[in-house]
Amino acid sequence: xxxxxxxxxxxxxxxxxxLTWTLPxxxxxxxxxxxxxxxxxxxxxxxxxxxxxQVLVAWPGDxxxxxxxxxxxxxxxxxxxxxxxxxxxxxxVEAGLLDAADWQAAPVGAAWPEDLGAxxxxxxxRKDFRIDRTVARARLYITAHGLYEAEINGRRVGDETLAPxxxxxxxxxxxxxxxxxxxxxxxxxxxxxxxxxxWYRGKxxxxxxxxxxxGTDQSLIAQxxxxxxxxxxxxxxxxRTWNAAPGPILxxxxxxxxxxxxxxHDPDWATPSGATAGQWTPVRTGSRDMGxxxxxxxxxxxxxxxxxxxxxxxxGDDSHLLDFGQNLVGRLRVTLDGPAGTAVTLRHAEVLxxxxxxxxxxxxxxxxxxxxxxxxxPLTWEPRFTLHxxxxxxxxxxxxxxxxxxxxxxxxxxxMRRTGWFxxxxxxxxxxxENVVWSMRGNFVDIxxxxxxxxxxxxxxxxxxxxxxxxxxxxxxxxxxxxxxxDVGLEQLPDGxxxxxxxxIPGEPMWTPxxxxxxxxxxxxxxxxxxxxxxxxxxxxxxxxxxxxAWVDLVDSLAGPTRLWDTGFQxxxxxxxxxxPDDPAGGRTDRYLVATAYFAHSARxxxxxxxxxxxxxxxxxxxxxxxxxxxxxxRRYLLPSGHMTSDSPTAYAVALSFDLLTPPQRQPAGxxxxxxxxxxxARIATGFVGTPLICDALTDTGHPDIAYRLLLQTxxxxxxxxxxxxxxxxxxxxxxxxxxGTLNPGGMTSFNHYALGAVADWLHRVVGGITASAPGxxxxxxxxxxxxxxxxxxxxxxxxxxxxxxxxxxxxxxLTAHIAVPEGCEAIAxxxxxxxxxxxxGEHVLNTAELAPEGHLNPPRSVSSSxxxxx
Length: 871
Hints:
21% of the residues lie in helices and 28% in strands. It has 15 helices and 45 strands. Strands 19, 20, 24, 25, 26, 27, 30, 31, 32 and 33 form a 10-stranded mixed β-sheet that branches. It is globular and about 80 Å long.
């Protein structure tokens, strides 16, 4: 049992959380279910409910009150079992603070004067209190203006990083609920928190960044509620009775890095004896609209992996160069012991240039951490309030040898559940897929960012729009992206314009003021639809429908009666490899062709959304609008010869993939696309818009062989060129590193940028062969299309209903496929050259030599299948 899209039910932010469960193995499809909810000493049951729903099922009882806890369990009746299943293990759900009136806390922070235009030394805040009885339950509800890490009695609370994350702070500030019962003792206790600037008031953004984007204060908002066994409670909330003192962090910034002076640190500062560990003075209290505090919809950022260096090279008397073998996002943890005052500096970069850290692509993100030793013995330390993108690091100021035991890279990202895997017989393709995974990890840091290393790291709307299908296969990113889309809606301008990136920060002169742009603004329509298709959440689709409708209506007004969006600022096929380094939008494809194509595509998807929501009037209106735009597109951009006015791969890819051509026009367009690819030696000639579409456009028009040639190309530009050049993540530019080993001179040269990795969606569906044909994978098509000399592939996806997998291999007798269909799902197998056959839940082994040839109506009975034993 799970609740909403959360990994657990503690501190849930809705009073009626939806429920999801998977069926017992071998049970077949669900016919009915019974839910039991235990709360307040009573048990309520739904009785037997004759429904097949098992994903995001409505809460079965009265809404939860703030702080209320319940346990839920389910049993099901299935087609293959004569008796109901066993009851599931009870799962607990507990509401957070659901009403602004539940909050007693006020923002508290340092009261001393600060230079608002400069880097400021972060503060720590603390409060002593007493517990006079045995504690039954204790909850800490906590957030901050800026960043925080909390401690109670010297023990850290939680394990998240960069909490509370980045939202549109004036409208939504995320708080988290922690069970801290085990942190408390009878008698004297202390709660404290480290504070950091973060996105709230730190220097962030382009051209040197902007300080104090959301405010000038650095404040903690916390409420510790302690419940005794007799039912009485005591609340310790941030207020004027707290104290603040400068901490041992001297400077801290997400771009700049962090400086920590261990001589100023007393490890007992957040214990009852720590009241003398620093110059503690009364805090300054601030204000906050508590109605803007929201509970998380997804998991936090955490350390998910530790990596030791694969090589350590001494480069000077007091410097070492470290290679971790993998471009990653995180920070270093070091264990050092030296004389007091010894300053050890850690610098980071993604690549080397002439044997040294290539820091130019970082621009003004200095990515430099400094540890000043205390001389009091060995110290294990890592920064708290910064992250870096790097494969290489330089440690300077340390004369002794460094070993793998001394330095560790700790990988950080939003701790989403992994749901998708792919591998095949080609090791270069496997490395490409692994690079996609690593780039997603590094760029899903509370919001979906564009690059994790330079002075940017923004939530670009177009990048996630093209990558969402890949992302939602690899990880359960539903809650995280649902939360971020909420912020997209809040940042949407009154006229319907969707910003280039969300949250919005200053970006003069190119990005501010905000202009509507195709592909980027279309995140409003296309990404909610993608999430609905992958996770089956109709409520998510409904919540974001007003945003999507306002966007399409805006574009409709901009296009006017011609139905052509052919005016205004557009990025077009951004980073087409033919574009010069200093003009990423200067590609081969008419940017207004791209804009009009996306207009039609978004209108079509808005119609589909309206239909799914039962809004027949809107569905009819936007379907007709999509038809009109497609007709205008053909008249304007398709020549009588059958060529596009922009005779470029992206032009044909959008026309085909967005279904903008009539049936007689499709094949000539597909043939022309294939010819263009071949004429260019099967090298990539597409940017952000065309790259996610081109392989499907080729495949769907009978040219899968050309799609495979594109995939397997190793010359620049191509996907595997980057792999051949040693890439361990996806690059922003096809030639971020040029064949001669020099860096691309463009100002945007990131080596960790997931957009061009959107091809992984094609790998999953076409090479791997798993496609959702109904929302949430309730219906699945297993349709591998082998090619390119790839002789086997294995693909697995954890759907909301359970595991779907396909492993195929070419043998002398044909293609053999091992297929797993989740319980509660329907599936069709469409193997090459064979008639489609229906599959029931369970495991199946199919061989094309034993199946009926394509077009045969009665497949033979020799298909083998097996079902796991019912528990």
